[in-house]
Amino acid sequence: MPNNFQKMKDNCDFETEIVISGISGRFPDSENLDEFWQNLVEGKDLISDNITRFNVGEYDIPSRMGQMKNLDKFDADYFSIHAKQAMILDPRARFILENSYEALVDAGINPATIRGSNTGVFIAGTEGEAGTIWKRSSTKPNMYGLLGNVLSMLANRVSYAFDFVGPSYVLDTACSASSVALSQAIHAIRTGLCDGAIVASAHCHHDPISSYLFHSLKMTSKDGKSKVFDASADGYVRAEAAAAIYICKKTVAKRSYATLVHAAANNDGYKEEGITFPSESQQEKVIRLVYEECGVSPLEVDYLEAHGTGTKVGDPEEMTAASKVFCDGRQTPLLVGSVKSNMGHSEPVSGLCSIAKVILSHIAGILPGNLHYVTPNPEIPSLHDGRVQVVVKNQPFNAKYVALNSMGFGGTNVHTLLRMTPKEELTLWNPPIPIILTCSGRTQEAVEKFLEKALPHRQNQSFVALTHHIHKSDNPKHSYRGFCVIESEKMEVQVDQREFPVSPVVPNISSMIRWDHSVTYDLPHHTKEISRQKGSGRLLGQSSSGF
């Protein structure tokens, strides 16, 4: 029976290139992409020994986990969310809204200028632990709890907040969900269902029972280390993360990190070993399908970012399949790695975490090493005969084609091929006359911080052009505007903010759901500026595409 993707390919525009134009994310112990990259190149283990979400002593579960910062902060007013709704809104929804905004800005888009556009929203999500706790909480249930925790709202709330009218839905294929969401978004753009798309996901841990169930299935590591490809691999470490990318046709992109050459998905079907047992043969099939469809040789792939969970069965099955496709006729070893060794397994977000690692590596020209790899897994022959080489130390990275694997524990496999956008040679720009650089923000501090971060990029013409494009139109949600004067060899900051009449930021609107005998605690917290300029500011300073 022909593959469903093949059935529909006659209706697809394969000639038009689709690119990753913007990206944003939060990761364990990493507030933004800047911090995440710094932690990767420093070889930091992002798994925490101090789990603050719940008491691990009540259950026989691993005592280490990857935790995000600031689950308790959210600017509800920016997204027109009532304080009562914000108090019980799933933290995943908060992160997805924030990251979607930042991914758009990183793509050089002022969100206010694309309201009403045919933009799609494709969200990856699994069962919400916050919603589970809310349902069994002693707090009286209300409509805000339903609207704040039902899975479909993770996507629909983004469409509502930004007034996007394209397809909007949530996909759940477990650990491969964000990669499936990306493949669906690519297909939607190719077939004309939408003009651009947000692909996002978030995963937060509030309930120890979920960790207990995964551990009872022998999926998680006892010592809290994801020993990917290693002989001692005994499972993965659960981790929180949130990420979003904005994709669109290359012809309309303000910047491009990578071209999405192709992506395909399949399922294992029936297996005598059971539904959670991976299928080497089906993984091999979906990988081969991608290269058959797009016409690129697997030998052109320079690096494989593997699913690489560190499970006893998963790693050998995946690498055996990959070796059959990529290593036949290869003159040099296939380089492989998995970001899960550094940050743990964020389950539905993991595909986007892999993309974030690859994009950051491409920008810096450095491929960070895997952690916890000492002895090659004896069940993976290609590690022993030299066909495959695990990246264990930071090394130069100048790949053209990068492949990514993603597998769900129910048998849904995805393979994605990226062609990295060549980095432009940065030419210093000395404007003949002073140039005014303007920006806006929710607070005076945000404006000042952005202008401060713009200083090192004052001679980067692409950065200045992209900044002008974002801020040339008014954003009704930004109360402050500022400017600075760029001269030929310096940038004289002359900040002058004026406040616009907008509704005030609602105080004490966020909640932190913490497990304690099925009681939900609502805690007051300070609000924050929605655009955390540190992460997007650094990427905004990269010269990635023409205008």
UniProtKB/TrEMBL annotation:
<keyword id="KW-0520">NAD</keyword>
<feature type="domain" description="Ketosynthase family 3 (KS3)">
    <location>
        <begin position="15"/>
        <end position="420"/>
    </location>
</feature>
<dbReference type="InterPro" id="IPR020841">
    <property type="entry name" value="PKS_Beta-ketoAc_synthase_dom"/>
</dbReference>
<protein>
    <recommendedName>
        <fullName>Fatty acid synthase</fullName>
        <ecNumber>2.3.1.85</ecNumber>
    </recommendedName>
</protein>
<keyword id="KW-0808">Transferase</keyword>
<keyword id="KW-0275">Fatty acid biosynthesis</keyword>
<dbReference type="Pfam" id="PF00109">
    <property type="entry name" value="ketoacyl-synt"/>
</dbReference>
<dbReference type="GO" id="GO:0016787">
    <property type="term" value="F:hydrolase activity"/>
</dbReference>
<dbReference type="Pfam" id="PF16197">
    <property type="entry name" value="KAsynt_C_assoc"/>
</dbReference>
<keyword id="KW-0511">Multifunctional enzyme</keyword>
<keyword id="KW-0276">Fatty acid metabolism</keyword>
<dbReference type="GO" id="GO:0006633">
    <property type="term" value="P:fatty acid biosynthetic process"/>
</dbReference>
<keyword id="KW-0378">Hydrolase</keyword>
<dbReference type="InterPro" id="IPR032821">
    <property type="entry name" value="PKS_assoc"/>
</dbReference>
<keyword id="KW-0444">Lipid biosynthesis</keyword>
<keyword id="KW-0596">Phosphopantetheine</keyword>
<dbReference type="InterPro" id="IPR014031">
    <property type="entry name" value="Ketoacyl_synth_C"/>
</dbReference>
<dbReference type="InterPro" id="IPR014030">
    <property type="entry name" value="Ketoacyl_synth_N"/>
</dbReference>
<keyword id="KW-0443">Lipid metabolism</keyword>
<comment type="similarity">
    <text>Belongs to the thiolase-like superfamily. Beta-ketoacyl-ACP synthases family.</text>
</comment>
<dbReference type="GO" id="GO:0004315">
    <property type="term" value="F:3-oxoacyl-[acyl-carrier-protein] synthase activity"/>
</dbReference>
<keyword id="KW-0560">Oxidoreductase</keyword>
<dbReference type="GO" id="GO:0004312">
    <property type="term" value="F:fatty acid synthase activity"/>
</dbReference>
<dbReference type="Pfam" id="PF02801">
    <property type="entry name" value="Ketoacyl-synt_C"/>
</dbReference>
<dbReference type="InterPro" id="IPR050091">
    <property type="entry name" value="PKS_NRPS_Biosynth_Enz"/>
</dbReference>
<dbReference type="InterPro" id="IPR018201">
    <property type="entry name" value="Ketoacyl_synth_AS"/>
</dbReference>
<dbReference type="GO" id="GO:0016491">
    <property type="term" value="F:oxidoreductase activity"/>
</dbReference>
<keyword id="KW-0521">NADP</keyword>
